[in-house]
Amino acid sequence: MELVELLILCFFLVLGLYGLDAYRREQRRRFILKERMPKELQSARLALSESYISTDAPRKMHGALDQFYRLTDGVHVLVDTKTRDQQRVYRKDIVQLSVYSLILRRNGYKVANYGYVRAVSPEGINYIKTPLLNDEETVWEYDRTEQVLSKKVTPMAAEHKGMCASCPQQINCDQWRFASGQ
Question: Do 82 and 151 fall into the same domain?
């Protein structure tokens, strides 16, 4: 192969790689626009996705997180997707993200004290920024759940009837009770 042919081949290879990179950047831009992703996540790198995580301290905890982004300053932010009729965050969502945060910090990650619930509803997609619980509150919620599951305590009263309809603890309730009297 002559030098000229080699240079032409290299030129087309570089041109092809540039085109592929431009295509990927355009796909990401379209994804960000469609998602209405928060500014800080737009420039972040996806560190983990659909990943199983666990720790043995302060309790044996595990879970499967949806997405975990690394911001430009090195701090990581959790994102958990919820598909619902309405775009809202429930206490159980905050507890779930807080447990994941505790696990990840125990595994050496620097994690923000907030996360996002990626709410998918008929209205579209919305990222709802959510403050997380501190470690003490997270462990209390985790222990409380374990006590309910082992039937050592009864579940707390629900805020409204809709919460009972999808509650996995219905079987552990002596009766469905509602804090608001509904």
Answer: yes
